[in-house]
Design brief:
With 319 residues, this protein is of the alpha/beta class. It has a single domain (13-318), classed as HybD-like (Rossmann fold, 3-Layer(aba) Sandwich). Helices cover 39% and strands 20% of the residues. It has 13 helices and 9 strands. It has helices at 13-21, 53-59, 79-96, 120-125, 132-137, 157-160, 164-175, 220-223, 238-255, 262-272, 275-278, 287-306, 312-318; strands at 31-38, 43-50, 64-70, 104-109, 148-152, 179-188, 197-201, 226-237, 281-282. Strands 1, 2, 3, 4, 5, 6, 7, 8 and 9 form a 9-stranded mixed β-sheet that branches. β1 (31-38) and β2 form a beta hairpin.
């Protein structure tokens, strides 16, 4: 069966911009981009700011800030670099929303514990220092270095039968946090960004959008409080892989003074795709090991961000 309207999907704003700007890297109106490199170019930070409706329409994403931290060492056993990345993420979070000591933070881990590539959210929650109950029952005894933090893993609709956004909204209305932080696994357009990229945004999140499984968004507009979403691409759509193969073939042809048109590329990709293949998502075979490393990076960053005066070394002791 031919797929006439295949779509390359991504949850990353940096990739959306790359697809809009093209190979010539033209400026996208209504979108500003700033790039910073650290640790001898081992860590790259890209800040994409969608300024207005024109930029939002071009990018296909809401107006707001999108910070991407990239490093090939994220998926490697490089603890020193991981600590530095955690500190970078913590600092970026402070720029988006400066938590005061009297503010309450609610952290939600989206995803399915039973699916490795989708388990990032729940696993980050397992390493998060929660204190809301201590503030309620032991406020005099708790150290002033701790913030008021609660956390929750809502599961997925296939298990609970409930829309995740509605569950989260209900808890937000009951507990009234000042900030909601949502952690989720994402989908990438570029295979090289799988497990090597962490995206932070203040626009909320559309669970499952990168793999074509759209759920209701979790954002300030839907839940009533500021939302920061943190995600890591753990899968890539099979359509992307096929498209990349065709692109690589075209590059080889160009080197031989030959090439194929966009129409021909579209036709070839259609011929290679079946309906089942279009819905296939791929994750690396070492995902179970890598997901633990990414979990630690994000959990460390969150614990340092929400708990004042707590270092990464302190976090390891508490846990």
């Amino acid at each position: 069966m031919k797929i006439d309207n295949y779509k390359i999907q991504t949850d990353l704003a940096i990739e959306s911009r790359e697809m809009v700007s093209g190979e010539e890297n033209i400026e996208v109106k209504g979108v500003s981009v700033k790039i910073e490199e650290k640790e001898n170019k081992k860590i790259k930070i890209t800040r994409v700011n969608i300024i207005d409706e024109q930029g939002s329409e071009s990018m296909g994403k809401p107006i707001g800030n999108y910070i991407t931290v990239e490093s090939d060492l994220i998926k490697e056993n490089e603890t020193d670099i991981h600590k530095k990345i955690s500190k970078i993420i913590s600092n970026e979070l402070k720029q988006l929303f400066d938590i005061k000591k009297d503010k309450k933070v609610f952290i939600v881990g989206l995803g399915n514990w039973n699916v490795t590539a989708d388990s990032l959210g729940p696993k980050v929650i397992s390493k998060t220092i929660v204190t809301k109950h201590l503030f309620e029952y032991m406020e005099e005894e708790i150290s002033k270095t701790f913030g008021c933090v609660s956390a929750f893993v809502p599961g997925v609709m296939g298990i609970t039968g409930m829309e995740t956004s509605e569950v989260v909204k209900g808890i937000v209305e009951k507990t009234k946090p000042d900030l909601l932080i949502v952690i989720d696994s994402l989908a990438a357009r570029n295979v090289t960004r799988v497990n090597s990229t962490i995206q932070i945004t203040d626009t909320g999140i559309h669970p499952g959008s990168g793999v074509g499984n759209k759920r209701k968004e979790i954002s300030k507009q839907t839940v009533g409080v500021q939302v920061i979403a943190i995600g890591v691409p753990t899968v890539v759509n099979a359509v992307t892989i096929v498209s990349d193969v065709v692109d690589n073939i075209n590059t080889l042809l160009k080197n031989a003074n030959k090439s194929i048109s966009e129409e021909q590329k579209h036709s070839i990709t259609n011929q290679l795709l079946s309906e089942d293949f279009q819905n296939l998502c791929v994750t690396p075979k070492e995902e179970d090991i890598v997901i633990k490393r990414v979990r630690n990076i994000i959990a460390d960053a969150l614990n340092v961000y929400v708990h004042h005066g707590v270092s990464i070394e302190d976090v390891r002791e508490y846990l």
